[in-house]
Amino acid sequence: MKNTLLVALSRSMALERQMDVVANNVANVNTNGFKASNSLFEEFMKTGAHEDNFSASDRRISFVQDRSTMNDFSQGANDRTGNPLDVAINGKGFLAVQTPGGERYTRDGGMQINAQGQLVTSSGYPVLGTGGPIVFQQTDRDIKISEDGTVTVREGTTTQVDAVRGKLKLVSFDNPQSLKREGSNLYSSGGAVAHNDTSSRVNQGFIEKSNVNAIAEMSRLMEISRIYQSVASMMQQQGDLRKSAIQSLADVPA
């Protein structure tokens, strides 16, 4: 009975973690550039609960262990916004962002211009160009962002000459699974080396939507909930069986 309860407990803990991951996916269905997460589990073999006075060795018990989560970096759908400061990245690249904690990376291409004229994310962090933050002048107009990330404007009110304000810093990683999620839809490198990405392309006036499949994730939530209830019921039954056994053993005939 102890082994049954221990196995059920390990499954319950794994289900709780899986529920957190799926719920986070559902909560970010409408988050621009969000990438879904998937739970990774593995079998953990261990000798079961036993007394030490048996001559033969016990058969090992199979537990479930929550190993980690894997990020799904597949491309999300591109949604046309018409906003010249919105960009969708087609490829494996990330935008580089300057934060108080250092350089971070995002797929959220919804950008703005702050009071200082800097190109920033929706959270207010400067978007980095290959030469540092990209800064506009008050008289800049007709902002254009080419496929390679070059940012140009019409400078002044009368000139017809394009002026370059910078080039978006696009980076990619040999092992993107090393990236660590942070708040504000950002990733830290997690020890992975960022390389300049020349193969990804920028699509101005579009935004990449979340790649979460809402229907699939909601179905998974219900499935996890049913399994959790089933495991909880089994644990309750085992607890009742253990209680009944103790009571029966305590009934000493007169």
**Alpha plus pi helix count:** 2
- Structural category is alpha+beta
Q: Major beta sheet, specifics?
A: 4 strands, antiparallel
Residue fraction in strands: 25-35%
Helical content stands at 10-25%
**Helix/strand order:** HEEEEEEEEEEEEEEEEEEEH
The largest sheet has its strands arranged as 6-5-14-17
Overall tally of structural domains: 2
Structure write-up:
25% of the residues lie in helices and 34% in strands. It has 254 residues and is of the alpha+beta class. It has 2 domains: 2-73 and 212-247, no CATH class; 78-208, no CATH class. The strands form 8 sheets. It has a 4-stranded antiparallel beta sheet with strand order 6-5-14-17, with no helix packed on it. Strand 7 (111-113) and strand 8 (119-121) form a beta hairpin. It is elongated and about 105 Å long.
Strand and helix layout:
Blueprint: H1 2-27, E1 37-47, E2 60-71, E3 78-80, E4 87-90, E5 94-99, E6 102-106, E7 111-113, E8 119-121, E9 128-129, E10 132-133, E11 141-145, E12 150-154, E13 162-167, E14 170-173, E15 180-182, E16 186-188, E17 194-196, E18 201-204, E19 206-208, H2 214-250
Antiparallel strand pairs: 1-2, 3-19, 4-18, 5-6, 5-14, 7-8, 9-10, 11-12, 12-13, 14-17, 15-16
Task: Write a compact overview of the structure shown.
With 254 residues, the chain is of the alpha+beta class.
